[in-house]
Every structure is written in C-alpha cells, then in structure tokens.
C-alpha cells in the first residue's frame, strides 16, 4: 500500500480533469493541442490539491520516526527533534517512500510554471490569430507576447537587482530560483486573496438562495432578458460579418492568389451562409481584366479572426438560450407542483433527451416530487449553514495563523491534536477537507467570473480556446500559493511556525523564503488578512452595486432596472412556452392523424399506383390513338387527394368571409 494511494489519486484526478474539460470544451471542434495543454494544466493543479494531504501525513510520520530514533544528545542541530513518544509510530496506509515526493513535486511544479508563463500565453495568441498558415500564426503570437514576456523579465530583473545590491546576500543558483518562485507566488497570492474573499461568502449564500424557489425563478427571468439582448447582438454581429465575407467572396474569384484564404474563411462560416454564398460563385472571371481594389492578406486574416469569434459567440448564445429555457420551464413546474395534492411531479413538457431507464425506474414522479418540493430546500439550507461555518473558520484562521504561542488558527489546532495521537486518517481527512474547501472557493470563482466576451467559461461544450487556455493559466498561478497558504494555516510551513522541524516535501522545493525577508515576514503573513474586508464587501454586494452604477446590469432585488428586466424575461419565457406548446400540439395532431388515417392513406396511395400502371400499359398499347378528354381514374384520385388536404387543413373562421363554392370568388370578375 506504500504507493497505491498515490497511484489511485493520480488516475482519479486525471479522469476528474478530463470530465470537467469535456463539460466545458469541445473535443471534436477545438484543436488537439489546445485540449491537451488545457487538460495538462487542469490535471497538474488538481493533482497538487489531492496529493498534498498525503505529503502532510508522510511528513508527520517521518517526524515521529525521527523523534523515536533520536535523542536530544544526538541532535546535530539541523532538526529539533521532539520528545520520544511512548507509543510506536505506526506507518500510515498512504505512506510514500522517501525520495519519491521531492521528485514528484519538482516535476509537477516546474511543468505547471512552464505552462502558465511560457506555453499557454503563446498558445492563446496562436489560437486567436487569424493567420492562414502555421508560420503566420506563430509570427503573430510572438509579436503579441513580446510585451507580455518583457514585463515579466522587468519584474524578475527588479528582484534580481534588489538581491544583488543587498550586501547580506551572495547570489547563487538556489537563491535565484527562490527569487523566481517568490515572484510567482506573490503574484498568485495577490489574486488568490481576491478570489477567496468572494468565494467564501458567495458559495454559502448561493446555496442558501438555492432553497428559495421564487428567488431562483426571478433570477432566471433576469438572465433570460440579458441573454436575449446578448443573443440578438450576436446575431446582428454575425450578419454584419457574413455580409463582409460575401463581399470579399464576390470580389476575389477562383483564379485569384488569395482565393485559398477566402475558402478557409468560408469553411468557418455556418452551413446556411456557405450555401447562400455558393450560389453566386458559378461564374469564372479573370481578376487581371478589371482594375479592382482587392483586400490584402492582413485584412483577410483580421476578417478570419472576426468570423471565428462571431460564429463561436452566436453558437454559444443559441445553446445557452435553450438551456435557460429548460431551466425556466422546470422551475415553473416546481412552483406549480408544490401545491399538488397527488404528490406526483408533473412536467409541462417532456424531456427532449432520452432518459436513462435505470434513473427513470428509481426516480419516479413521486420521488421527484418529494425531492424537489420537500427535501431539496432543506438540504440546501443545511449545506449552506455547513459551508458558512467553514467560511468563518477560514477567515478566523487567515487572520490568526501567524500566531504560534498560543496557536489561534483552528486548522493548526486540529492538526496538532491529531499529530499527538498519530491518527493519520483524521489528519488526511482534515487536510483534504480544508484544502478542498479552499480550492472550491477559488476555482468556482474562476469558473464564474466573466471579462466581457474575452474570458468566459461556458458549460455544454461552449467555451472557446482562448478562455480554456486562460483558465489553465489561472489555475497554474493560483494553486502553488493556495497550497502554501494551506500549509501556513496548519503550521506545517516552517516560515510560519518558526520551528526548525522537518519540512514537507512540497515546502522543500520552494526553497527558503528568507532570501526576501520583506515578503516572507510581511506580505505572506499580513496580506491574507485582507480577506476580511473582501468578505464584508461581498456580503453587502458592493461590487455588484458598483457594476450596476456603471451600466452593467446585475441582479439586485431593490433595483428598478432589475424589476424591469425580470418582467421582460417573464414575458419572453411565456412567449417561448406558448411556442413550445403549439409545436407539441401540432405534433400530437399529426401523430393522431397518422394513427387514424394511416391505413386509408396507404390504400389510396396503392390504388393510385395501380391506376398509373394501368394507364401506362394502356398508353403503350394505344400510342397512336388520341388521348381521351377526361381520365376517370385520375379524376377520382385527385378528388381523394383534395378531400384529404381539405380535412387536414382546418378552416379559418376568423376570416372576413367564408365561401362554400370556390367559384364564387370569381363572381366579381
């Protein structure tokens, strides 16, 4: 079992990252390199979170073994050993042999840093480039990242000059490595506290509001009004871009050198636009005969970039609109079924996707009613209380983790109590729950935030390549300072605990932060206290109110603009609901018509076929005879068809006049 736990977690985390990436990305349409790079970034970050508790339990066992095998007289000064324990140190079930974890952390950490600072920014520019060749895309990516890389070199140079000028330090490779790690962790910790302060309040509050049916329904109406505006804007933008593509396609003919670029652009357009533009390209024209002004390759690359963006945005808004409609219909069904006397959940519309028979067998309408109308609100309330308790503990520990005598951080108290009894299961569970909750608060904020239309993680395979790569960059930059913050909360970091004990393998690869004392003793300790102010600001929705004042409509219960958007969204949902009902009623009538008159239609069709065969044989034998003026069988078949059509098409009684005889319509003539 020494390495089984590590291997199982490595496999489990891989499938977890693959599942999340499949939910947000599109494996069929997006480039393979984008999928692989994003998967690797997500996988490494999730792996650090899941493996770190094993590192903590292994370190505690090594400290216990060192304390038992050593005595105060044998101490060499490198470690201050604890008093020998009277009980034997039991090896944890997840113990990882010596030498594995340092190599593992070194590979994972430096790979993630290479991804976030070098590869992923380059791939972002490469994915957004509108170039038509690999060389052109690489050139564009290098130019766009020149300022990006130059900024980081400037920051690293500032740290390097500070250490070089300070006479107390002698520049060595280990110290330069520590400076680079400190610079990366400082940037990550700055962003980490901002995201953590939002998640600690918003996650419990969202679950508490999830128990309010009226709140969720009103918010869904609000989202519908906003999404309809975005959907209309995306459709208008796509129409404008397609008009430009049409003009370019008509001006650049088949024998033009840039026609290959135009064909590449046309392949990225929706199918209906491709068919529409293809009808006007049947003529062949020599471009040298007329002196026309043709667009350059640079302008075509810009148009190519706009086409990719507009098509992706249009497709995303269409999918999100359908998902939001299903959500609104379901919430309205829940509101109706709450007062049901039969206690069976009744859906207004049937699910468009085929349901699993196993789930359908166990999740009956009665079970669905009890869960949706009775149990789910209480479950969300209890979960919100538990999450709020965790948030309070995190905020308290963030403000007091620097105190070692007495120990005020609650997470450090729990770990130290378990360390005395060497209860490794409790240690690993406590560490896992702590770092998992911190990760949920930070990562969920990354999934929720939206920077206009440049960065937006949309589920159901609607996230573009740029946003996927950007999320991988954020994860790789946030995870190392998140783990260091966790080790500081539990006093497993020697920089915080001020004890010269054996460090964890993860801390050992970071080097000694004493090289930059103002960061180790100042920024790392006091900056996390800012989370209190951020939590208060999030609780009172100060950021939402500021965005609302700037013109970005946000959901606020006491705002007149919010009420107007809710009413607008309610009307949109009602309109879509009537449209869906008419469609289902039409399908039901057609199904009943087919079941009732299906045999009659088949017999009529067979008689018509038999009559046509008789007519063809008669015409072959009497080819020289003149045709009769009227054909009895044809007239009979036509009358049958007319009668069927008249029965299928309902009369419009709302018309101004109804004529029994179709010839009366020509009486005026």
From TrEMBL:
Residues 618-634 have a biased composition (Polar residues). Residues 576-669 are annotated as: Disordered. GO terms for biological process: adrenergic receptor signaling pathway. It is found in: Membrane. Keywords: Coiled coil, Membrane, Transmembrane, Transmembrane helix. Residues 658-669 have a biased composition (Acidic residues). It holds the Pfam family LMBR1. InterPro entries: GPCR-associated_LMBR1, LMBR1-like_membr_prot. The chain crosses the membrane at residues 6-21, 33-52, 103-126, 146-165, 177-201, 378-396, 425-446, 466-489, 523-542. Residues 582-617, 635-644 have a biased composition (Basic and acidic residues). GO terms for cellular component: membrane. It is a multi-pass membrane protein. The keyword Coiled coil applies. Residues 224-251 form a coiled coil. Belongs to the LIMR family. PANTHER family: G-PROTEIN COUPLED RECEPTOR-ASSOCIATED PROTEIN LMBRD2 (PTHR21355). This is LMBD2 protein. It comes from Leucopsar rothschildi.
């Amino acid at each position: 079992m020494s390495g089984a736990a590590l291997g199982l977690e490595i496999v489990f985390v891989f499938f977890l990252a693959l599942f999340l990436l499949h939910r947000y990305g599109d494996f069929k349409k997006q480039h393979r390199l984008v999928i692989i790079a994003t998967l690797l970034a997500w996988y490494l970050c999730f792996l650090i979170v899941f493996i770190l508790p094993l590192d903590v339990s292994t370190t505690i066992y090594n400290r216990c073994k060192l304390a038992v095998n050593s005595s105060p007289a044998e101490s060499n000064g490198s470690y201050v050993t604890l008093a020998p324990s009277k009980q034997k140190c039991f090896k944890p079930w997840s113990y990882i042999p010596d030498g594995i974890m340092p190599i593992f952390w070194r590979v994972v950490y430096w790979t993630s840093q290479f991804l976030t600072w070098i590869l992923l920014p380059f791939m972002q520019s490469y994915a957004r480039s509108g170039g038509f060749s690999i060389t052109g895309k690489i050139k564009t990516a290098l130019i766009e990242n020149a300022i990006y890389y130059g900024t980081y070199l400037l920051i690293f140079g500032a740290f390097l000059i500070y250490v070089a000028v300070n006479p107390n330090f002698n520049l060595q490779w280990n110290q330069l490595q520590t400076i680079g790690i400190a610079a990366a962790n400082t940037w990550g910790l700055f962003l980490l506290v901002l995201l953590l302060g939002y998640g600690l309040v918003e996650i419990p509050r969202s679950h508490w509001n999830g128990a309010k049916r009226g709140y969720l329904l009103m918010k869904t109406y609000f989202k519908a009004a906003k999404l309809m505006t975005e959907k209309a804007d995306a459709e208008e933008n796509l129409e404008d871009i397609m008009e430009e593509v049409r003009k370019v396609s008509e001006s650049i003919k088949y024998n033009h050198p840039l026609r290959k670029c135009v064909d590449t652009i046309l392949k990225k357009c929706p199918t209906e636009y491709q068919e529409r533009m293809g009808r006007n390209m049947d003529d062949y024209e020599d471009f040298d005969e007329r002196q026309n002004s043709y667009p350059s390759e640079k302008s075509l690359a810009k148009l190519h970039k706009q086409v990719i963006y507009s098509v992706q945005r249009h497709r995303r808004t269409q999918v999100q609109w359908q998902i939001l409609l299903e959500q609104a219909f379901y919430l309205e069904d829940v509101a109706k079924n709450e007062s049901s006397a039969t206690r069976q959940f009744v859906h207004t519309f049937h699910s468009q996707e085929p349901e699993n028979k196993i789930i359908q067998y166990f999740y009956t309408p009665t079970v669905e009613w009890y869960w949706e109308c009775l149990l789910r609100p209480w479950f969300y309330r209890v979960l919100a209380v538990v999450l709020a308790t965790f948030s309070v503990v995190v905020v308290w520990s963030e403000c007091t983790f620097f105190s070692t005598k007495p120990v005020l951080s609650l997470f450090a108290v729990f770990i130290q109590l378990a360390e005395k009894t060497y209860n490794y299961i409790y240690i690993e569970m406590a560490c896992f729950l702590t770092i998992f909750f911190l990760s949920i608060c930070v990562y969920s904020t990354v999934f929720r935030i939206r920077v206009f239309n440049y960065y937006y993680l949309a589920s159901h395979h609607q996230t573009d390549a740029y946003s996927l790569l950007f999320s991988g960059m954020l994860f790789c930059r946030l995870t190392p300072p998140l783990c260091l913050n966790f080790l500081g909360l539990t006093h497993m970091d020697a920089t915080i605990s001020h004890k010269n004990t054996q460090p964890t393998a993860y801390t050992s690869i970071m080097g000694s932060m004493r090289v930059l004392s103002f960061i180790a003793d100042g920024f790392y300790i006091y900056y996390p206290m800012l989370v209190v102010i951020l939590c208060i600001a999030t609780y009172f929705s100060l950021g939402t109110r500021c965005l609302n004042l700037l013109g970005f409509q946000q959901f606020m219960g006491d705002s007149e603009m919010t009420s107007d958007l809710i009413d607008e969204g309610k009307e949109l949902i009602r309109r879509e609901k009537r449209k869906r009902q008419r469609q289902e009623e039409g399908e039901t009538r057609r199904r009943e018509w087919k079941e009732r008159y299906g045999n009659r239609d088949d017999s009529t069709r067979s008689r018509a076929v038999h009559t046509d065969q008789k007519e063809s044989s008669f015409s072959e034998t009497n080819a020289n005879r003149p045709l009769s003026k009227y054909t009895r069988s044809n007239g009979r078949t036509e009358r049958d068809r007319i009668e069927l059509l008249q029965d299928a098409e309902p009369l419009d009684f709302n018309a101004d006049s109804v004529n029994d005889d179709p010839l009366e319509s020509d009486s005026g003539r």
